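Lecture notes, unit on protein representations.

Consider one protein chain, 131 amino acids long.
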Amino acid sequence: MATQAARQAHNKTAIRRTVKVGFKKVFPNPNIAGMVQRAVKLATPIVQQAHLLANLHVLRMCEAGLQLPPLDITFWNRCMCAVSEATEGSADYDPAVDPALTASLAFYDTSVPINSARPQRPAFIKSVRAI
């Protein structure tokens, strides 16, 4: 099914099902459910800001006619580290590793309201339990 026509033919005959499951059904243990909710609360602002930075960076690179970096997990992790504040046990963003991304970050910072704090990026599990 490598071709588009084969995918379209398969999609016409494929049976699809939707399974709806509630949060409490997936996480019946309140301790685990609380940890998941806290992790989501911590990660959401970082992910949102990382998306903005990544989009800005790709746009800047395209407009400048420069080669895009590989848009892989390493790039994504750099974006998340760049827009967040490391806490104990977390790796800091190193501006020297990717000067082009650092330039995009400087441009991104001009659009962020003055006095707005970067989201905290804790060492994950230890900090989620502490919150």
